[in-house]
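Q: Give me a protein?
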Amino acid sequence: MQQLSVSNLVRYLRYKIDNDKNLQNLNVIGEISNLSLSVSGHLYFCLKDEQSSIDCVMFHGNAAKLTFRPKNGDKVILKASASIYEAQGRLQLYVTSIRQDGIGDLYQKFEELRIKLEAEGKFDPAHKIELKTYYPERIAVLTGDDSAAMSDIRRAFFRRWPLCTVDYYPVLVQGEKAAQDIIEKLKKVDPMGYDAIVLARGGGSFEDLFCFNDEQLVNTIYDLETFIVTGIGHEQDYSLADLVADLRAATPTAAVELITPHIEDIAETLNEYEYELRNYMTSRMDREYLRYDFLLERFIAYRHHYEQLVMRIDHHIDTIKTHIVHKISQNDDTIRNLIDKMRFKVDFTLNNEQLHLKRLNTLLEAYSSQNVLKRGYTLVIQNDHPVKRKKDLQKMEFTVRFSDGEIIAQERGSDA
């Protein structure tokens, strides 16, 4: 008989198991025990029932996709493939997904709807709204009426940010009518100008929280124009409403903490600002007092200098006034003398010109044509010109002007 090494035997067994289609893509039901999480993020545990157990490993990539936190004692349904771990020759299941037993159909429905909505871009981070203010003034809270979640939220607001106005809108958070009730309240508060909307409920089973996986509710949250934060269940609970919301908190109280400052932190910050402002003002006033003293000293010095300048200016003004008055007096005498001389010269010249004008006027009157005509002479005018010689007279009409009038005449010639 052929002898085999342990390694060859284990490798052969692994080969046989890996190639057995009946041992791939298994759905195995059992209870988790000996659960541990490695530093690298891999999950190691046993899956057991009343009679047997088998080792299981779920690598980090698949473990990170879990929508709940497995724990010892959970009854689950694994999707896995069987194989041999060669180093120890141990049969184990390599797990790709885990869902809680008893909610298999709901979980399958959840996964199918999640994949569909994700493909439609409903969970796209680029669509999410930023909280517009770090100090919200008005917030709407949608949660169960008189529920533990409402009480937790009230305490959180009172403790952290009592300056905010919080309006509570009770909604159904479980059951067939819950999703529609939440949708109606969201559509009501969205246009009311709130800084944020809180959608919350306390912990519960996967079935209890399933109303928050409603497709119409997801679409309504996606279409909101108001920032919305969800605080549904506990940290390990995830719903489709959480995925589409602008911000997801682990609990209702955490939802309040994520969107509000702590008033004690604000008070501490204000105290620090006040301390810094007082120090700044004290330092600034000390500098200004020093500057004031310096300017005051300079002002006193400049004032003395100014008074000296004013006295010198007044002296110069008096000197200039005296000089100007003296000059004006001298110029006034000179101008008066010049005026008298000019007046005398003008009068003398005017008298001479008047005598000359009289002589010219006498001559003009003596030699004027009118006086000549009065002495018995006549003036012959033809073509508007005086005729001085007979040979210049043309054989046409001409005017003979006397001292007392004129006549029209015409030369008749020597044969007349």
About this structure: The radius of gyration is 62 Å.
